[in-house]
Amino acid sequence: MRTAVEFRQRFERDVVVDVAAFLGERAAAAVEGGVGPDAILIDPGIGFGKNLDHNLDILARLDLYRDIGCALMLGVSRKSFIGKITGEKDPKGCVPGSLASALAGVRQGARLLRVHDVAETRQALNVWDLMNSNRAVCFPPGKLDTTKGQFWDLIKHHDISMSKMCQQPMK
Description:
- The protein is mainly α.
- It is built from nine helices and three strands.
- Helix 6 (95-107) packs across helix 7.
- The chain is globular, with a radius of gyration of 21 Å.
């Protein structure tokens, strides 16, 4: 097991590329040893000897880890980088930042999340999933005259309503 100092010394260049290269090498070794890529999870290790800039760089470039060809796991729940961004000193107060970070990770291909606040994360994922489904109806600016009832006619036609969306069962 490497210490935090050893990790920091290793990341003198580009932490994102260094960690991706390391994980790619380990995944390749596992595959050579007979483990199928579908049985391998990779985790870039948010925190764990990395500073705020390292963590933000990794989160901004998760595509490099996804490109390794194994499922991407992400652990951003209650991490200190969230407190550094928000000024929140209590990790339990970092739930909103944890949710935002988790959703950003899922948007970039994270397949598994390590979380402390399971119910809150599940709810955020369910809402996010619904919001990103094809249920939304979009209009170019100025193309919908709400004063003539077009909006409500459209909602009725597509059977879309906020009350219906809010009553969707949790997956």
